[in-house]
Amino acid sequence: MPATRRPTLHDVAQEVGVSAKTVSRVLNGDGPTSAATREKVLAAVERLGFQPNLMARNIRTGGPDTTIGLVVPDMGNPFFGTVAGGIESAVRGRGLTLLLGSSGDDPARERDLISTFLARRVSALMVAPAVGSDHAYLKAARATGVPVLFLDRPATGLAADCVVSSNRDGARTGVAHLIAYGHRRIGFIGDRPAGLYTRRERLAGYRDALAAAGLPYDRALVAAAHSQQDAAAATDRLLGLPDPPTALFAANNFAAMGTVVALAQAKRREVALVAFDDIPLADILEPPLTVVAQDPAAIGAAAGRTALARLDGDRGSARTTVIDTRLVVRGSGEQRPRR
Amino acid sequence: MPATRRPTLHDVAQEVGVSAKTVSRVLNGDGPTSAATREKVLAAVERLGFQPNLMARNIRTGGPDTTIGLVVPDMGNPFFGTVAGGIESAVRGRGLTLLLGSSGDDPARERDLISTFLARRVSALMVAPAVGSDHAYLKAARATGVPVLFLDRPATGLAADCVVSSNRDGARTGVAHLIAYGHRRIGFIGDRPAGLYTRRERLAGYRDALAAAGLPYDRALVAAAHSQQDAAAATDRLLGLPDPPTALFAANNFAAMGTVVALAQAKRREVALVAFDDIPLADILEPPLTVVAQDPAAIGAAAGRTALARLDGDRGSARTTVIDTRLVVRGSGEQRPRR
DNA sequence: ATGAAAGCGCTAACAT
DNA sequence: ATGTTAGCGCTTTCAT
């Protein structure tokens, strides 16, 4: 069976015996239409299975495409999946659809995707940046009026809207929780590279908590890891120090997993642990894992709302929205230090 | 600053002093062009920051939009996120981008999304169906030549390409593993409703394994759950039976989590467990969780390849691709039955 | 090697 | 209440 040509507005018009514009009016409900023609038109639309070509419509109206371009480092990461879901919920009512691409944390690929999305004339562009990408080149794009918004981390080299977690505050709270249980030497296992925004913020929170408690900051207790394996190795290393930490703060979700695995394998259940970002099954680990939970759905929703506000003409200066984190106490932070 | 109008092909042409068509030729490399004009054109393109409007191009060429529409029940589920990533990798080389929507397992919303995607003239449509949706209505759409492809479950009411895991075989292998360790009463905690494809297949595999070992099938050992909480409750119920199972087979990932949680809370570590679908941290649970792992990236990749083949003119009849599952032995299946 | 005109499917702006 | 014309930004077709 050869592919039947998709019916056009014209086909419907001919079928009914009216002009294309009349059909258009019925479908979009702008001009006035008699009830009789409206009915006939709708019947013909149904019969032919007509679907207006959205691209043609967008071209003619000159407006942007009714899509939001979203670039994330990794789709398999439920954090970004949930963020995407939050965006979708927020913009669905406005008829916007998500165009999604993953950069694999490669700045070049991220640029490619952004460029494709802009060529598609997306209504708005949202980017959860890859490690090491710079966004100064987006200034030109933004001058054309496309709202550009950053997720999880602010843009580099560009003042743009962004939505982030309360990284510093969250980390401070998590570390303060450990300090409250008597820990004075607390290891920090964070992301790499050291300059990475989320790592920097969370490390700052860690130092805030130490300072507030009058504890010294010891660089020997700070490790960097960019994979679960790395984090496990870093955990082993910290625990092997001459004057080892009695508690650990894992500053992101794979650090959390790596640390949990390392502690379990080393049978070091007495080491207290708080992690940034929640993980599945945290409550049945032994001990149950205390975390500083992010709210990815809220991040997505806030991003969606900000984009809509920009599309509605909000020309205010770049705005940073901070989404609260929440300390979820489950037990692993309450192990007392052993001496 | 007012939004600067996006430059068009015409603007570039004027800037250089040639016709629009010449610019088009340079950019698409079809007609012949002199090296001199090519250079001038490219310079002007760079200077103006011109990006061809993909929608306009698609309209004119009459081809489908260079997107693949993907509908999944839930974006936050890493299974679907990873599937999406697999699709993207497979089709990226052909310049196709993902248009993504989540149905929230609501058939009406799924239909809406599909309809929007078709109106956008996607090159291909991929659907991981919501529970309870019927797809007979897609026959019309498919007659227009859009490849339609189902993920995770086959279509209902329509013969279409689909890519699924080896559910039956995988379940059989997982249950056989339990039988090999001496279990004769094995509980099955599956999805709801009972008619759901994946549940049916996995239950069939469970029965295959029982039959192969000459064990009776006892309906009292089969439970249904559609959330982690449900699954935990079902686990408690099965363990409370007069003649309780000594092992459990959790037939999907939330059943897995629910069962793990229930066993941990009831301190019933001696109950053997195998789960369908891998979960994070499975290897540090106590005991480490043995699973029948799916390969979502391979599912996505296969789907992408199938779609490309269809776009390349493959008109063969509907094809079902089965992606192998893999038994990952970690320990929880090796608890011996207590008597 | 380049340009002019026509048209993809639709809607804005003016008719009637 | 409906039709006509023009044109969105691009590419096809046919000239030159």
UniProtKB/TrEMBL annotation, chains A, B:
Gene Ontology molecular function terms on file: DNA-binding transcription factor activity; transcription cis-regulatory region binding
Signal peptide: none
Gene3D superfamilies: 3.40.50.2300, lambda repressor-like DNA-binding domains (1.10.260.40)
HTH lacI-type domain sequence ranges: 7-61
Keyword Transcription regulation: yes
Origin superkingdom: Bacteria
Pfam families per UniProt: LacI (PF00356), Peripla_BP_3 (PF13377)
Protein keywords: DNA-binding, Transcription, Transcription regulation
PANTHER family: HTH-TYPE TRANSCRIPTIONAL REGULATOR GALS, LACI-RELATED TRANSCRIPTIONAL REPRESSOR
The protein's name in its UniProt record: LacI family transcriptional regulator
Source species: Kitasatospora atroaurantiaca
Lineage, uppermost ranks: Bacteria, Bacillati, Actinomycetota, Actinomycetes, Kitasatosporales
